[in-house]
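Before relying on records like the one below, remember that each one covers exactly one chain. Contacts with other chains, cofactors or solvent are not represented anywhere in the record.
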Amino acid sequence: MKEYLMETPSIDYMNHLIQDKVRELMNQSEDEMDYLKRCYIFVRDEISHSWDIKADVVSRTASEVLENKTGICWTKSCLLAALLRANQIPSGISYQRLTRADDDSEGYMIHALNTVYLKGFNKWIRLDARGNKENINAYFSLDEEHLAYTIRSEWGEIDYHDNHGDLDDRLVNILIGSESILEITTDFEF
């Protein structure tokens, strides 16, 4: 569990902005499960997905996502992990390979979501805080996944069902090398 509680450069939960948000969410929460749900809903609903709003800014870390109030799924996942890890809730990152269009004509992209360990249930669940919009309706559930995307294997989409302690180095390097969120592309498999 240690790697799912560590602070990393991408999941920088000791940053004062993250710590302030943790205290705010903790003060509103009845218990750990309520805190978890509040963190998820905050990241999903209050932090805009950069592609959806055509934001130019590149948020590279959890604290930058919080400061800029926008990020792509990779860094929104880092923010949710930071909020959870700061309260000793193990969290990781899982990936999906999705088409850019309604078919494979425009290639693929990498989508990130979170894994969360529920101590009281002795199990991992996955939550997708990408942000909802038309045709995307992810929500909090302990029993079954309600993720942003349904995998279409006929188009080569893949749900890796993986669990990583940090954002993949390839994605970190893409973020570091990008001046605009609108120029980011990925077309590799995990």
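The helical segments are 16-28, 32-46, 50-53, 62-68, 73-85, 169-176.
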